[in-house]
Amino acid sequence: MKPDSNFTSGKRFRWKSIVCIILFILFLPAFSSSIEDDRFSPFIEKYPNGRIDWSSGLIYGVGRGYLHLNNDSKSSAIRAAHVIAAASILKVAAGIRLDDRHTLETLGKDRVVIELKALVRYSVHKTEFIKDKKQPYYEVTLLAPLTGVEGLTSMLITRLKTVPLDWMNLPKPSGEVVTEDEEKPWLVLDARDLSKENRVKPAIFPKILSETGEIIYEPGNVDESALIQRGMARYVVSEEPKEGLVSQKNSVEQILERAGIIISTDEAVAGEPEKRAKRKNYIVKSVKHAEGLMNTTLLISAADTQDLKKEDASSSILKQCRVIVIVSSPIGGVEGSIPMFLAKIPDDIR
Q1: DSSP string of 46-64, one letter each residue
Q2: What 3-state class would DSSP assign to 13?
Q3: Interval 186-221: pLDDT, tens
Q4: DSSP state of 223
């Protein structure tokens, strides 16, 4: 008995349709993901054997322990990698810009004595075995937070309170509870329309300056709890046009969600189907210039200054450190490798 031709052609059509649907499902997410990754990404400064993620507020230090330099002992190689990673994270931290003039390293050479080891609280991020054909090794990555109670910012403020300062006004405790109120706005400073020479650089204590010379944002006029929890500014990368940031607030929402700065709408209402999360309000302003010896001070127009002062009076947008700086691409730092002689555990700590 011959098969019915209509049945056979219909079967082929269904199979072709199924294959097309499967291919569509498989390739669409990857395509969409690649677009999203290109538009929104963390702001990362790279250094030899370490990096700073200025969007998440984390410092990373990397160390390698080679087996052939540690008697082919796994435990010794891991310990060596850990020691080197700890040294790397301290070296990266030493170069962090505090403001437009100081780094932790240069501050230590002044009247202020900084014991960096006492300020940095790090933990193990990951340990990997790299099966290199010639010289296999263990790689340990440590991370230290910039924000939070155990973060470098909190430790640094505590330390600076005990020494005389003539270059910085420290934040004062207000007793206010820092909350992520959905109705409170965030300031988004667009610093992408600047020349390469004038590119904004991140700092722990940046300032916002009016073109008239008035300082409207500095450590002395923010809440200490907010500064410790959020940091004075988070830096993120985006290629989203400014028009999109202003007209489509969900674009800003996506940037901040990817940077881990805010909780996504889905997460905010998880387990509470009867409630609908309100979309946050964002105030987008342009940075006209980067000021200071290290380009960390953000200069804005006089008109924008007046707008922000009024907003701060009503919502404490500046006092509560709800500030995001968007740049076009990461700056500074060069990928580096770990010198071979450093990848061996010192004899005195075996």
Answers
A1: EETTEEEETTTTEEEEEEE
A2: helix
A3: 999 999 989 888 999 999 999 999 999 999 999 999
A4: B
One-character DSSP codes across 57-96: TEEEEEEEEEGGGTTT-HHHHHHHHHHHHHHHHHHHHHT-
One-letter amino acid for residue 114 of the chain: I
Can you read off the two tokens belonging to residue 263? Answer: 């909780």
What are the strands of the beta sheet with 186-190, ordered from one edge?
40-42, 234-238, 323-327, 186-190, 282-286
- Quote the CA–CA distance of 236 and 324 in Å, as a whole number: 7
For 125, the enclosing helix (H) or strand (E) is: strand 123-130
What confidence tens digit (pLDDT) does each residue in 134-184 have? 899 999 999 999 999 999 999 999 999 988 788 888 998 877 667 766 678
What would the pLDDT profile of 98-118 be if each residue is shown by its tens digit?
A: 999 999 888 866 656 678 888
Positive or negative torsion for Cα 137, 139, 140, 146? positive
Q: What is the rounded CA–CA span in Å between residue 235 and residue 332?
A: 14
Instruction: Give the pairing type, strands 234-238 and 137-145.
Output: unpaired
